[in-house]
Amino acid sequence: YTYTPYEGGRINLNVGFEEFIDTHENEGHSSLEELRTWIREKAFDLENENISFVSKRGILINIGYSLYKPNDDWSFKVCRKDNVLYLSDDRKNEVPTREYLRRASYWCTNFERIITGKADEDDILSYLVTKFKIGDFQCIVAGKTACNDEDGNFMEIKTANSRYYSERINRGWLQAYLCGNQKLLYGLRDQKGYVKADEIKVEDVAEVPNKYQWQGNWSASSMLGFIESVLKYLQDNVPEGATCSLRQNNGRYLLHLECENQVF
């Protein structure tokens, strides 16, 4: 879908909420095998490309963002085969129980539908697969994207409370940056889920850190450095042929070796 500037009036993101069923799918849970299949079909040579990690974007976002949210627990599985580490989300899909959080989840989904003009999320989202370097590690990272602009730049679509935009844009920036999206489109909403037409912002991903990190008290280089430190920890501690899990609980990392020489 090619984005064109929205020309309507105020957007009520609550429309349709009562019929909304939130599956709350996380990007790393079920589709790592799809990514591995894509790599095989494309005959992508991981060894010649010096690839160290293959991951869905959502796992790396959780790691990087936890630098500022140390009490947010996360976990994922790590499998090492032929010296490549594959990261797979092992969490169950958890639907928010608080109504406000359910609404906030719906607001973002509904905003994508309104901006793209697509009623079905499956018609909106496509996967981008990017060869990406994080510190010393070459990675294959895949994540969803919703549309592109008229110049062909891939765009990430998000919503945020207008009062906390400069503080919260760090997660949106990381999400776009890790998958090579060049543009970040935000609908700035109020607490009740309304977006004014003049509060739809399109940001250049490359310019976001210099523009906002000093206002929101966050650092792009610190988030990427934090991800690199976790990847190095895995590189140094996960043996060949093993499946492990890494968990963060209250700011502490727990590496658990589940079984050795597991077939993968």
What would you note in describing this structure?
- This protein has 264 residues and is of the alpha+beta class.
- 31% of the residues lie in helices and 31% in strands.
- The protein has seven helices and twelve strands.
- It has helices at 32-41, 57-65, 99-116, 121-124, 165-178, 208-216, 220-237; strands at residues 11-12, 51-56, 74-81, 84-89, 126-134, 137-145, 147-148, 154-161, 183-189, 194-204, 243-249, 252-259.
- The strands form two sheets. The protein has a seven-stranded mixed β-sheet, with helices on both faces. A five-stranded mixed β-sheet has the order 1-10-9-8-7.
- Strand 8 (154-161), helix 5 and strand 9 form a beta-alpha-beta unit.
- The radius of gyration is 19 Å and the shape is globular.
SS field, number of helical segments: 7
What is the helical fraction, as a range of percent?
Answer: 25-40%
Strand order of the largest sheet: 5-6-2-4-3-11-12
Structural class: alpha+beta
Task: Give a short account of the largest sheet.
Answer: 7 strands, mixed
Number of strands: 12
User: How many angstroms does the end-to-end distance come to?
Assistant: 37 Å
CA radius of gyration? 19 Å
Q: How big a fraction of the residues is strand? A: 25-35%
Q: Averaged pLDDT, please?
A: 84
- Low-pLDDT stretches are 259-264
Order of helices and strands: EHEHEEHHEEEEHEEHHEE
Shape: globular
